[in-house]
Every structure is written in structure tokens, then in C-alpha cells.
Amino acid sequence: MTGVPASAAGGPSGARRAKGRASGGLTPAAGRALAREARDTAPGDSGDGRARRAAPGPEEVRPAAPPSPQPSQEGAGTAEGQGSTRAPRGAKIAAAAVDQASVWNIANLLTMLRLLLVPAFVMLMLADGGYDPAWRSLAWAAFAIAMITDLFDGHLARTYNLVTDFGKIADPIADKAIMGAALICLSALGDLPWWVTGVILGRELGITLLRFLVIRYGVIPASRGGKLKTLTQGVAVGMYVLALTGWLATLRWWVMAAAVVLTVATGLDYVKQAIVLRRQGIAERKAALEETEE
Question: Which of 116, 247, 113, 122 is nearest to 186 (CA)?
């Protein structure tokens, strides 16, 4: 005797007999219980149906799916601490506001001041016919402030990470505007030959245009000669703005001559750098194209 109930001795046939008894003299609930017992204890290939039912084979094991996370008020409050990478809508608006406010940093404010000093310088320079020493001294003060701020705004922007798109555009415009206004006023008053103004302004505008033409190949860095040129131009123009006489008037002529020489020399050097940079860029593009074709 194996202990298998008689109703289950015939396997599936035993289950049918159990169902027959359940529909006969037993109550429906008792019949369903006997039928389930017959199915559970029916012998299979392994010999013990109850054991198979209690311990399913490896192929019958299904890994439980991880529960899907349910949003909750507590989880939303601690999303940042749990490493959530999705920024809330309010954070994006705040970041945009910070970027917009960064335009009003100290470096850009100095650049704006330099732009405002351009018309002030012209009015002071041409006041009372342009030959009053007092007005010329005030014009020199405005020009000096503009040149000094030019030295500080770029340094502050690079040191404290205040570089903005506005500063990249407005800073070179302010530089050319104050220098151009001073040269044109001096030539209009007869204090400086027009050819000097033409050489300096032609070089500045030409190099600026050249930088834009070769920017697809790279950036032409500012050289030490270019910085020395800017300093010499500022000193020379400042000395011409002042109503100097005697040996100081002679000295300013030599300083302006040095500024013109540096202007031409550094301009030619920038042209050379632009040509080399363009050739290198074309060669690199050609090599990259050949590699892609291979």
C-alpha cells in the first residue's frame, strides 16, 4: 500500500470518479475538495504528484517582477537626495534667471562704462572749439578711464569666470570705439596726420575681419606684441589729447611713431598666423576626409 487514495489510483480517471461522487451523494463543496485532491495527488513521470505540486521544477520558477515605484509626497521631497536627475520645472526657470542676471557682472559693467565714455569723450574733446586746455584735460581723464577699464574687464572676466556672449561682442567694440573716436577727433582738429589715423584704424578693422574669416579653422591668440601695441597706442593718443608743449610735444611724436611701427608689425604677424592657421585647418580636414573614405 502506497497511501494513495483509491480515487486517485487511476490518475485522471480517478479524478473523474471523484467528481462523479461529488455530484452524487456528497455536497458540492466536498465534491470540489475531493476533485482537487485527486488532481494534486495524480502520479506523473516522477512518481509523486504531491511532491511535484509542492516543489516546482526550475523551469516553473518565475522571478518576481520588482514592484514599480509609486510616487509619494515623501519621495518627491527627497528626490534630490536619492539621485534623481530630472530637474523640476522651477529649477530650470531659476537657472535661466541666473544666466540672464550674469550679464550684469562687474566685467560687463566696466565694458558698458567704456561705451558710455565714448560720446562723453567726443563732447569734451570738441568743447569750445577743441583747443581749450581745461576741456582737453577732462577729455584726457575720460580717455584714461576708458583705457584703464579695458585692462581690468577682460582680466576679471577670465579670472572669476564672468565671460558672457555680451562681453565677447561688446568688449572689442568698446576698444575700437574709444580709440577710433580719439584718433578721428585729433585728425579733425589738425593735431594728428590723417594717414596715421588711417593706418591704425585700418589695421584694427582689418585684423578684426581677419579673425572672423579664419575662425572656422581656429582662434588667433593675442600676442605680446599686440598687447604692447595697445599700450603704446593708448599712451601716444593720451599725450596728443593733452595740450602739451615743448619737449613733451616732441616726445609724444616719437611715442606715436613707435605705436605706428608696432601697429604695422603686429598686423603683419597676425596675417601670417592667419595664413598658417588656415593651411593647417585645410590639411586636417583633408586628412579626416581621406580617413572616412578608407
Answer: 122
Q: What is the pLDDT of residues 69-97, one digit of tens each?
A: 444 444 444 444 444 445 455 444 444 44
Residue carrying C-alpha cell 592667419: 274
Q: Please work out, in degrees rounded to the nearest 5, the angle formed at the alpha carbon of residue 150 by the alpha carbons of 119 and 139.
A: 35
Contact between 116 and 155 (Cβ < 8 Å): no
Radius of gyration of the chain (CA): 44
Residue type (1 letter), 32: R
Cell triple for 37: 485532491
Tell me how far apart the alpha carbons of residues 33 and 7 are, in angstroms, rounded to a whole number: 12
Q: What letter would DSSP give residue 127?
A: G
State CA 63 to chain mean position distance: 46
Residues 6+ apart with CB under 8 A from 171: 111, 150, 153, 154
What's the CA gap between 261 and 27, in Å, rounded?
A: 119
User: What 3-state DSSP class applies to 290?
Assistant: helix
CA distances from 31 to 21, 25, 40 (A): 7, 9, 14
CA distance 284 to 268: 25
In this predicted model, what pLDDT tens digit does every residue of 10-24 receive, in sequence order? 444 444 444 444 344
Contacts of 71 (CB under 8 A, 6+ apart): none
Rounded Cα distance, 80 and 87, in Å: 9
pTM score above 0.85 = no
- How many angstroms separate the first and last alpha carbons of the chain? 82
Classify 243 as helix, strand or coil.
Answer: coil
Burial pattern 19-49, b for ≥16 Cβ within 10 A else e, equals beebeeeeeeeebeebbebbbebbbeeeeeb
User: What is the C-alpha separation between 114 and 126, in angstroms, rounded?
Assistant: 19
